[in-house]
Amino acid sequence: MSAENPTQILGTGEATGFIPAPGNNGKPITVIGTAGIRDAFDAKCIEQALNSRGAPGVSDLVLNPDAHAGYGAPVGCVLVSPTHVYPGPVGVEIKCSMSLLQLDLPVDAVADKTVRRAFINAIVDRTPPGAGKGQRNVKKGRNVNADLGRRVAIEGASASVCQVLGIPPEWAEHCEDAFHVDHGNQRDDLAARLDQLISAGKFPKFEDKIRQLGSYGGGNHFGECEAVQIADNDRARERSACARSFEFKSGRLLTASSANLRFLSEASFVW
C-alpha cells in the first residue's frame, strides 16, 4: 500500500503477491513484481485490474511488472476465462509487441565491457528511443517517407520493401508475423482502408508518425540482452540455433495493418 496505490497488495514472495478478488469472490489477482514494483502501481491501474477481474467470464487475472492504466483493462495484464487466455487485453491506444531476436554473439564476449559498450552503441545508433523520436534522431536510421511508409503498412515485409530498407528479404521467412493480408488473402482492402483513413484526416501527421518506424516508440518500452539456457532435450536443441538473444518491447502505430509495421520496425533494428 502506498500514496499512489491505496489498495493493499499482499506479498507472497520476493517478487509475487496478490489482491483479493472483488468481494473476495473467486481467485485473487496474481501480482508479479518485487515490493518496490508492487508499491509503484497507481490507483487507476489497480482499479482497472479489480474491475476486469470482476467482469463476467473472467476467472483469473495476472498483473505483470510493467502493468499500467489502459482503456478498461490495465496494459500489461493477462486475463483468463474458463476456455481462453487473453495475454494482451488492452484498449485501442497501443499495438505493442515482444520480440526475441537470436544473435551469434558468444555469451562470454558480453562480459567484456568494450564488447558490451560496442553492442549498446550499435543499438543506439540505429534504434531511437523516446516519444516522437524517429530515424532523423539516430546516426544510422533508415529514411522512411510517407510513400514508403504506406507500402510498409500495406505490404509488410515484402521482398521489395525489404530491399529498399536494406533488409535481407529471406529474413522474413524466419519470422512468425512478417505480414498480414485481408480476408480475401489480398492487400487491396488494407490499401483502401489506409487511404480512407488518411483522406478523412484520421492520420493528419502520417509522415511524421511513420518516421518512427524502427524506433522503440514512447511508453514503457525496453531492450535487454539475455543468455538463453537451452533445455537438455532434442526438441529444444532443434528450435534454437544459438543461445544469445536480444529482447525488446516496442510500441506500434495503429494503421490498416499494425502487424506489417511491427515486423519492419523489428527488422530495421536487427539489420
List keywords for this structure.
271 residues; alpha+beta; 2 domains; three-stranded antiparallel beta sheet; disordered C terminus
Number of contiguous helices: 10
Q: Total domains, how many?
A: 2
Q: End-to-end distance, in Å? A: 45 Å
SSE string, helix = H, strand = E? Answer: EEEHHEEEEHHHHHHEHEH
- Sheet with most strands: strand arrangement: 1-2-3-4-5-6
Oligomer: single chain
Uncertain stretches of 5 or more adjacent residues: 251-271
How much of the sequence lies in strands comes to: 15-25%
Helix content: 25-40%
Structural class: alpha+beta
Shape: globular
Give the strand tally. Answer: 9
Rg for CA atoms: 21 Å
Mean pLDDT: 77
Largest sheet: 6 strands, mixed
Describe this structure in words.
Helices cover 32% and strands 18% of the residues. The protein is an alpha+beta fold and 271 residues long. The chain has 2 domains: 10-86, no CATH class; 97-270, no CATH class. Strand 1 (10-13) and strand 2 (16-19) form a beta hairpin. The chain is globular and about 55 Å long.
Summed up:
Helices cover 32% and strands 18% of the residues.
Note the topology.
Blueprint: E1 10-13, E2 16-19, E3 29-32, H1 35-40, H2 43-53, E4 60-68, E5 75-80, E6 85-86, E7 97-103, H3 107-110, H4 113-126, H5 146-155, H6 159-165, H7 188-199, H8 206-210, E8 222-227, H9 234-238, E9 244-250, H10 258-270
Parallel strand pairs: 3-4
Antiparallel strand pairs: 1-2, 2-3, 4-5, 5-6, 7-9, 8-9
